[in-house]
Write a structure and sequence with these properties.
24 strands; seven-stranded antiparallel beta sheet; 2 domains; elongated; alpha+beta
Amino acid sequence: MPTLTLERAIPWAPHPAAAPRTEQREEGAFVAAANGTRSCSGGWQFHYSGTEGGSALFIHVDVEYEDLDAPRDALECAAFWGDLKPDMAGCDGVRDWAYLIPQRTGERSIRFSARVVAPADAGRLTVRCVFRWAAKGRSTWKAPVIKPAPAPESAPRRVKVCVVTGHAEARSKLPKTIAGNVEFYSRLCERALETRPNLILLPEIALQWQVPGHAFDRAVPAPGPETDVFARIAARGKTRIGLGLLEREGDAVFNTLALIGPDGRIDGRYHKVHLAVGGESTSGVLPGDGFPVFSTEIARIGCNICMDSSAAESSRIVGLNGADLLLLPIMGDHRASRLRAGSPLFNESRWRAIMRTHAMDNQVCLAAARNGAWGSCVVDRMGEILAWNEGDRDWIEATVNLDDGYRTWNGGCFREVNWLQRRPHVYGAFVDPGNCGGL
């Protein structure tokens, strides 16, 4: 562990007119207070020498505040590898930087903390504390506490995902029965095990797809004889299977994705929240009421199903709930078809844009399993399509790197920027049940 030396603690501000009132107290407290203008921005920064490339550090900074209407907005803290100029808002002269993540510790106190790893050529570290956007109030910061952290893992977390759909021509020859679907998809899953996937994803209501009749008459229990077939495959292959089905649960029927674990048990299930208009939403099928994320041995996994895709909130909440992977069994998306009456026509370019946006906007790796095969894909957090099915393949596969380390052009962590730029207190319309947009 290198010996870090605190060389100086100094006020910073991007412009003299924006500078907050600052004061350093004898007991090691550093005050940044409003200057009476709404454009106040600045604070304190702490300069360290003695960092070593590749060393891992845990940093935390405690702050107490008063008279702030939106502390999440007004207070920020980040670590910069290099000397940060105290008269600049930007990060010129630094290679990488990382947000310290805020967590409330009391009624008027926050701890900003993060585990950071120094770049190979790091020699200096600047921790910047920010007070901004407030014409009143004050913040009192403690000096950063920096301790050695466990060394970075030798290898990033990687998950091999296999999206099993069957190609359209093969599926058209099957008998339109639940038993026929079980046989079709189970055989494909058996074959896919040869590639040693960590996760197999099947399409929406795979057990009942194209089977005639009302959902009430086609729904099956889970676990039950039909799901048990896939449970045995998961256990034999020591893998996970995301199985779409119409599920009977007591007096209710759900459009479900059952997450079967490598022990053959269903250890997570997601119920479709946004039921498809034009039939499903008034059929008696019950919608789900949340977007759970399941912590598993391979990743934190969240789910959407089909019509969920067209409501931006669906993938956003999965991302906010901390998912690494978003599973999307889907028949189609009305935005990726002709935008007028008539038989649906698949628009590949719009479909690709939709899937890439889900992944990028919500910083999840996405696996989409389309019943008709064409358009099934695996997409990483930067929107790169890692695997794509033209409709002529029984399955596609890709290995996604959950610890990809993508950074913005100015050195910030892409995922951190995505989430910490948010200003939730101004999103009231997002959850207003009476808001129907521009209708």
